[in-house]
């Protein structure tokens, strides 16, 4: 009789739980704008992206069943019965305006894409396979996000101001998701070859994706370009005392 | 005084409505792109519809999202203003 050998890895179980919950929340928030976007085309794009994100979540949750950590709480690995909420605190509520939708699309969605890019050659095969498929779809999400950030910023006036407020609302916690420099979880994954970057490197790669757009549009964020090191650097401290390392979200947000 | 307050509220409400209208108009798309595609290499490209977007990158996303009923082997789009009429209907 074949014996199912479960994997024993707290860091990997924790990260997959967080990714699945965040994808599920993002998908539901995208779906809430299927009939409320400024244009019909944007509504259809929101519906398509919602379908993608919910699909990503559906491929991630079943991986939890393979872990020893799921044995004592089987109800937590099925979305319908899961009570734990390991998504970002800013995703607790749906976007209340199109500007919030765009901020979610541009900043939060892209942060998780950065993680999956680091998992394309993962030593954990199920994650490697899923990362490659997810990235094919996330490419379109980023084009959509970037296009709308450009569109809203160039409109100027109150439209641009509202966009900047929406981006600031999600900025800090999104950066925190990669973890502090000594994040045990992410460092362990890096050490085992499950991802190919440390928390700080992931954050730098994330800046490489978003900062060209934000910089070109002169949207003020606490990041500067270090010409010598040729990378973007954060110029403010992140609120690590408020960081819930298990749930990967800020407390009291 | 009471009438002045009411008129003040109405005026502020009208002003808010004008601001909201300006924001809505600012986000209205004005550029039309004609979308062409084919589902087999033996077929010629044919028009399947259009999308509205002022931004080219957004137009590409919209075309892919809206016209996804077939597994197209090729899809292109052309801004409507680039089309030259030879025989007008």
Describe it.
Chain A contains seven helices and four strands; from the N terminus they run αααααααββββ. By secondary structure, chain A is mainly α. Chain A has one domain (10-245): Ferritin. In chain A, strand 3 (243-244) and strand 4 form a beta hairpin. The mean pLDDT of chain A is 93. Chain B is α+β, with helices and mostly antiparallel strands and 89 residues long. Chain B contains two helices and three strands, in the order αββαβ. The chains are: A mainly alpha (253), B alpha+beta (89).
Quick description:
Chain A is mostly helical. Chain A has 7 helices and 4 strands.
How is this fold's topology laid out?
The complex is a heterodimer of chains A (253) and B (89).
Chain A: H1 10-31, H2 40-60, H3 98-118, H4 125-155, H5 157-176, H6 184-191, H7 199-216, E1 223-226, E2 231-234, E3 243-244, E4 249-250
Antiparallel strand pairs in A: 1-2, 3-4
Helix pairs in contact in A: 1-2, 1-3, 1-6, 2-4, 3-4, 3-5, 3-7, 4-5
Chain B: H1 2-27, E1 32-38, E2 46-52, H2 56-66, E3 74-79
Antiparallel strand pairs in B: 1-2, 1-3
Structural class of chain A: mainly alpha
CATH topology type of chain A: Ferritin
The outline of chain B comes out as elongated
Largest interface: A-B, 21 and 22 residues
* Quaternary organisation of the protein chains: heterodimer
Largest sheet of chain B: 3 strands, antiparallel
**Globular, elongated, flat, extended or rod-shaped: what is the shape of chain A?**
globular
Question: Which stretches of chain A of 5+ consecutive residues score pLDDT under 50?
Answer: none
Number of separate structural domains of chain B: 2
Rg of chain B:
22 Å
Radius of gyration of chain A equals: 18 Å
**What's the total number of strands of chain A?**
4
Helix run count of chain A:
7
Compressed to H and E, one letter per element, the order of chain A equals HHHHHHHEEEE
Low-confidence stretches of chain B: none
Provide the β-strand percentage band of chain B. Answer: 15-25%
Sketch the major β-sheet of chain A. Answer: 2 strands, antiparallel
How much beta of chain A, percentage-wise?
under 5%
Task: Please give the alpha-carbon distance between the first and last residues of chain B.
Answer: 63 Å
Helix content of chain B: 40-55%
